[in-house]
Design brief:
Elements: H1 2-19, H2 24-37, E1 43-44, E2 47-52, E3 55-61, E4 64-66, E5 76-83, H3 88-101, H4 107-110, E6 114-121, E7 124-127, E8 130-133, E9 139-147, E10 150-156
Parallel strand pairs: 5-6
Antiparallel strand pairs: 1-4, 2-3, 4-5, 6-9, 7-8, 9-10
Helix pairs in contact: 1-2
Length: 164
């Protein structure tokens, strides 16, 4: 999966460099363009039923559903965000999707055990009409999986969390 993650990080940085400060939908559209250019198959806004106690309660749209490619052996959900950092509510949204995926009827979604949050960081602070730029990464990535009723964080590109 490392080759896939490296490619996603590279494409994310390329998109961010041209679009920083725009809406989440703009980043998603540009990322889709880069996926096509790089021959990464994907479905955008694929429908996922969210379940409560084995009952479907709502239909959500995944930002991206990517089938196996490169060194990715199973399909993966990619959720994009535009925020100052990956927040707990972003992780919880992904966890809800992963928990419900196996209960869906769609053959590809049913196989999803892994998801990725890709955050295009907002890194400018405005104080009294003066723009101050913080030293931050341009994108953040976290990879989570759900197996045997347990969530596991597999990867984060945050410098403070990476092991030497």
């Amino acid at each position: 999966m490392q080759k896939f993650l490296n490619k996603i990080e590279s494409l994310g940085k390329k998109v961010y460099k041209q679009l920083s400060g725009l809406k989440e939908e703009d980043f998603q559209t540009a990322l889709g363009i880069e996926f096509r250019r790089n021959k990464i198959d994907f479905m955008r806004e694929a429908g996922l039923e969210v379940f409560y106690d084995n009952h479907p309660i709502s239909l959500h749209e995944l930002d991206f559903l990517v089938p196996p490619c490169m060194d990715l052996k199973e399909p993966i959900i990619i959720e994009t965000k535009v925020s100052s950092g990956i927040a707990e509510d972003h992780r919880q949204q992904l966890r809800n999707y992963l928990r419900s995926a196996a209960k869906n009827d769609n053959a590809i979604i049913k196989k999803v055990k892994t998801g990725l949050v890709l955050n295009f960081k907002k890194n400018e602070i405005f104080t009294e009409s003066i723009r101050q730029r913080k030293e931050t990464q341009d994108i953040e990535i976290e990879v989570w999986s759900y197996e045997k009723n347990k969530f596991t964080k597999h990867y984060s590109n945050k410098k403070a969390e990476q092991k030497s």
